[in-house]
Amino acid sequence: MSRNIKEIIQKMTLEEKAGMCSGKDFWHLKYVERLGIPSVMVSDGPHGLRKQDEQADHLGINESIQAVCFPSACATACSFDRDLLKELGTAIGNECQAEDLSTILGPAVNIKRSPLCGRNFEYFSEDPYLAGQMAKSHIEGVQSQGVGTSIKHFAANNQEYRRMTGSSEVDEQTLREIYLAAFETPIKEAHPKTVMCSYNKINGIYSSENPWLLTEVLREEWGFEGYVMSDWGAVDRRVEGLKAGLELEMPSTNGINDKEIIKAVENGTLDEAVLDQAVERVLNVIYDYVDHRKETVWDKEKDHNLAAKIEEESAVLLKNEGILPLNRNGKTAFIGLFAKKPRYQGGGSSHINAFKVSDAVSAASDFADIVYAQGYMTVEDKVDEVLLREAVEAAEQAETAVIFAGLPDSFESEGYDRQHMRLPDCQNHLIQEICQVQPNTVVVLHNGSPVEMPWADEVKGILEMYLGGQAVGEAAVKLLYGDANPCGRLAETVPYQLSDNPSYLNFPGDGEKVEYKEGIFVGYRYYDKKNMEVRYPFGHGLSYTSFEYSDLKLSKECMKDTDCLTISVKVKNTGNRAGKEVVQLYVSNQTGTSNRPIRELKNFEKIYLNPGEEKTVIMELNKRSFAEYNVDLHDWYVPSGKYEVQIGHSSRDIRLSAVVELISTVALPVKVHRNTVAGDLIRNPKTAPVISGLVKRMRSRFGKTEESEDEALSDEMEMHVLDGMPLRELTKMTGMDDGQLGEFIQVLNHAANQ
């Protein structure tokens, strides 16, 4: 339908315009009946609908409508499957239409800086490329149904502790390469209708009133055209937020902040044009939903089956010493409360009221000889001797024991961070006791973030289900018995212990600030650079078949940084059953010009192969695939030199590699001054001819010539000395005064920037 939104805004009163910039209540936006502006509803996500009409809250305390709980992002990211995430998003978008929800609040793409963050189960990955790709596909799926998304939490919201007042202290390069990069791709390419700003400050300025973040970066650089909404209760100073680019405050403030906006316009401290622009952005999104409104049937059973499929594709087989798939004809003990009452989602604003939940005991009992023992309680972390004894007896009498373990609800949730990386002590004790009597033991994990595994070497198999949604029970059984072939890959590193994590000494901060001192070395970027042993590396995951890589080809051996590089590699299924492989493409900077990670994920493809089948996988790399963020340019920069393109099964399992040379089309600005060191000028091909004359004069002054036999100062030693010697000292050695030094610096600057 065609309408003139600017004309509608001209007809609005100041009070009506101010009102459009905050919620009507907890989940609805305001309406203006006389002008035909409807009220629309938003709802929490991102892995299902948490629609509340009464007793609304944003912490998951009060009940919502019965819905379908899909696997959380901690699981779906492990699928490494763009098409699957789009299918998930499409289903959620359809559900939103059925429930008349204009916008789903998600996906959440904050980086997993520490395994302790209480909300990690909602976030995709420690890697910004993977997080961005998953989010992009999710958004495209939802918005294909005419429903908006709200990518969140923008930005650097990587902990729950003091999230509403703390400041994330992050340098510009780290912010750009790690924490903003996960937002950049989906915002530029999938065009979410809204962006949700985070609670926290960034370098001392609240996200909700940060013009650099919300206007300069988000709108002017990335081209975002929707509206920015606040996280619930994230606004400090409303008028400053409006000026910075925060259009919508949620939830309702009962008119308090509306009055602040009105007063600011009336006293001239807020330009009414800024308010008009905010209202226009909000109305554009409202009417976009209205124009795409459609009657839709919500088939919950169909979506339940999709939830099962997604979890089958996302679960990660961490270890398998020939014990899986299980023998259908053998007696198996299913041990652990989560076998009957699985933990399938996290706590807080994304908590779904699932219309049904499948459990592993019920799913397996139809076809397998199963005995069940509860093993532990989740109410308190205490060994129950009766339950323990029953579990040990069940394990002794079976051929195989499968222990369903994981984190209880109280261990991880929105609102607070984990205190440690351990499973409950009672569960660790149970696993160790079972291993004493049953050598054929498998552990199935239900958790939203990595856990320490002191028993990993004692069990024969480990299947990581993460928080797998309401169909997690049937998905687990299909994977255990081989009706589905595991194909998930870890979207985060599993360290041996919490203290190995790069943020360990700087998490969660002092309550006022948290310093991101590890810089760009987050997750595998840190572990690989340190050459540190990890329990399971980023990208790791096993299959019931095997794959072989061959014939890696690059479209170019040498290229400008503005060119695209096409990579092809052949992958063959060398096992005896069909399966999916995730082909991971990493780039390793070999230029030596700066302190870079050993390798970084820059593309991936998931392919299905029948036994003996071979396919050629084709991927592309562009400038950003090789670039680093340069703080002098305030832009992305590719240093000239060699880069290694690596094809891997994980970040620690590189199968093939080839080298490409890049030529930068951007010259870094050089500003020579009296304290510029001689070594930098000698290495710069533009200034080297100029400085070389000065070096010769210094040599002759000290009696050293090219023909000299004096070995007191070798060329190597001389270079070490010059490497750190400022121009002011070098020129003194050659008899220059300050006036001559100034003239020489001008010559060097002219040469450097030609």
TrEMBL record:
Residues 581-651 form the Fibronectin type III-like domain. Pfam families: Fn3-like, Glyco_hydro_3, Glyco_hydro_3_C. It comes from the Bacteria. One of its GO terms (molecular function) is hydrolase activity. Signal peptide: none annotated. The keyword Hydrolase applies. Belongs to the glycosyl hydrolase 3 family. This is Glycoside hydrolase family 3 C-terminal domain-containing protein.
